[in-house]
């Protein structure tokens, strides 16, 4: 509707439909809630997919024991009935059109049954490939390898021999197997091969023939003590130092102090080769059994 004003202009009155506003607000709310619900559902679906994928991946990565199928006769299952102890562990079925029975189960269950059956039926006609491993006809293939360890220094032996080669106490338990003998501080090899040779000695910074009160000045003590293992070739009798260790006097600052020297390594030894232990100052050895030993064993 138009009205004239004093200035000759025409004013136009616009009518606004206030009834449309509530409907617009409701539509907006419905759209917002729909989007919200849709996003929630989408999030739930995404979480479900993630959880499902993780469970699937976990199952796929979990190791599963393999199944093995063999002729029932080879398993020792000749009858049609599965033994009670194997019920639920091994299944039986015919092999296609043939009349042979095939037994299947987890590898561990099958092997456990075959071993048990083979032990129970020793001497029978079981054809299992693992039966010879436990058959009474099997022969022992492993033998004790040569080894020796002498423990404790023989002071009387060293005084008697008047040598720098360390003399050792020996007993029947010092040797295992065959192929190693002892004489005058030396171990002789009878069976060639690779041997781990080892030694340990305990040193005291005061000579055996002295007491602490007899040593008045530390200058009389050596600056260091050396520990050796020598090898004597059976071909030419040549002595060769193969291992060496050195201990400084600084490690034993007070009179009567003790220190331990030990080492070991693998060497090839021929038949009739000899090895022995030596030290630069044998008079400073502490002849106790728990701190001194010498030995070797075939690897």
Report what the structure shows.
Mean pLDDT is about 80; it is low at about 125-140. The protein folds into two domains: about 65-135, no CATH class; about 145-210 and about 220-299, Jelly Rolls (Sandwich), CATH 2.60.120. It is α+β, with helices and mostly antiparallel strands and about 300 residues long. It has helices spanning about 20-60, 70-75, 105-120, 130-135, 155-160; strands at about 1-5, 10, 65-70, 90-95, 100-105, 145-150, 175, 180-185, 185-190, 195-205, 225-230, 240-250, 260-270, 275-280, 295-299. About 15% of the residues are buried. The radius of gyration is 45 Å and the shape is elongated.
Keywords:
alpha+beta, 299 residues, elongated, Jelly Rolls, single chain, 2 domains, five-stranded antiparallel sheet, 31% strand
Can you give me a brief rundown of this structure?
The chain is α+β, with helices and mostly antiparallel strands and 299 residues long. It contains five helices and 15 strands. It has a five-stranded antiparallel β-sheet, with no helix packed on it. A five-stranded antiparallel β-sheet has the order 8-9-14-11-12, with no helix packed on it. A three-stranded antiparallel β-sheet has the order 3-5-4.
Quaternary state, please? single chain
Give the low-pLDDT segments: 123-141
CATH C-level class of the largest domain: Mainly Beta
CATH fold annotation of the largest domain = Jelly Rolls
Helices and strands, in N-to-C order?
A: EEHEHEEHHEHEEEEEEEEE
